């Protein structure tokens, strides 16, 4: 993919991923209405079959300059060193991790649907499509743009929007408003993911890109998963609404604090990105 079209390509990849997030919850909610909970898990398992077939058909690309080098511990550590010593990659990675750690609320959706909105299992399935729908809209808009400028400011704005949207979602007791707010969080999270993905690809040398992605996946996947644990624990202590509200506010305040403390991230743009990657 040419560097000038990298953001568009990442946006399209995100679209492919989140479309399933719309169809899946809606289908799951419909099946739950019949009381056949086991069928939901069966359908979920069957969706892995075409994915496994697709992976099996992938062809290995030869490494540049000959065969692959033997894997060593030093090679693994190089990925961590590069990720943490490159300011723009480290800042976006850690902010995303902590924002999703404190702001994740998806695991509380059944409680929101049942106790706060009173919409039942079918309504829960519909509500679960809100974030993916927001992600599709945001991804489509980003894929149409030729280039996104001022990526640093946009990233910070997206994280703040994600936090504020989550907090308001915890306040709402009206279904349509909750749906819109949850969709906004999905759109904001997707736009921030697109910006992060493009920045990381642009600043990482070819020989380190796989290891950089591996390091970032630890934080990208770990933040939301640990955040669901946090949400469950806080909900058990003070209730689901306050668990959602406090987490959203914490994510928004975190984005504001990083914007104040890190002017380099706030003003970052890929205009004229140098070939050499600055490290600290």
Kindly describe this structure.
There is one protein chain. By secondary structure, this protein is mainly α. It is built from 13 helices and no strands. The chain has helices at 6-33, 37-46, 48-56, 73-85, 87-103, 109-116, 120-127, 130-144, 151-171, 175-203, 209-238, 240-261, 263-266. Helix 5 packs parallel to helix 9. The model is unreliable at 272-280 (pLDDT under 50).
Features:
280 residues; globular; single chain; disordered C terminus; mainly alpha
Number of helices: 13
How much of the polypeptide forms β-strand, as a percent range? Answer: under 5%
Structural class from helices and strands? mainly alpha
| Main sheet summary | none
What is the element string, with H for helices and E for strands? HHHHHHHHHHHHH
Which word captures the global form?
A: globular
Into which percent range does the helicity of residues fall? over 70%
Strands, count: 0
Backbone CA Rg: 20 Å
Distance between the termini: 29 Å
Unreliable parts: 272-280
Mean pLDDT: 83
TL;DR of this structure?
The protein is built from 13 helices and no strands.
Topology readout:
Layout: H1 6-33, H2 37-46, H3 48-56, H4 73-85, H5 87-103, H6 109-116, H7 120-127, H8 130-144, H9 151-171, H10 175-203, H11 209-238, H12 240-261, H13 263-266
Helix pairs in contact: 1-2, 1-7, 1-8, 1-10, 4-11, 5-9, 5-10, 5-11, 5-12, 6-7, 8-10, 9-10, 9-12, 11-12
């Amino acid at each position: 993919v040419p560097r000038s079209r990298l953001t568009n390509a990442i946006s399209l990849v995100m679209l492919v991923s989140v479309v399933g997030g719309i169809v899946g919850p809606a289908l799951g909610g419909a099946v739950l209405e019949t009381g056949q909970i086991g069928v939901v898990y069966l359908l979920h398992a069957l969706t892995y079959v075409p994915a496994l077939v697709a992976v099996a058909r992938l062809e290995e690309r030869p490494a540049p300059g000959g065969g692959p080098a033997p894997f060593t511990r030093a090679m693994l550590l190089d990925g961590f060193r590069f990720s943490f010593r490159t300011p723009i990659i480290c800042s976006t990675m850690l902010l995303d991790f902590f924002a999703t750690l404190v702001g994740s609320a998806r695991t509380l959706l059944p409680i929101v649907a049942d106790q706060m909105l009173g919409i039942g299992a079918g309504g829960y399935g519909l509500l679960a499509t809100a974030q993916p729908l927001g992600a599709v809209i945001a991804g489509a808009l980003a894929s149409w743009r030729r280039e996104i400028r001022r990526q640093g400011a946009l990233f910070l704005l997206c994280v703040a929007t994600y936090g504020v949207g989550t907090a308001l979602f915890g306040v709402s007791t009206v279904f349509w408003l909750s749906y819109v707010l949850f969709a906004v969080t999905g759109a904001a999270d997707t736009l921030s993911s697109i910006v992060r993905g493009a920045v990381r690809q642009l600043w990482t040398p070819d020989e380190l890109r796989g290891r950089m992605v591996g390091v970032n996946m630890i934080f990208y996947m770990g933040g939301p998963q640990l955040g669901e644990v946090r949400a469950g624990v806080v909900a058990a202590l003070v209730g689901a609404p306050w668990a959602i509200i406090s987490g959203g506010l914490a994510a928004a305040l975190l984005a504001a604090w990083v914007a104040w403390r890190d002017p380099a991230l706030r003003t970052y743009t890929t205009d004229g990105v140098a070939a050499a990657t600055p490290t600290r």
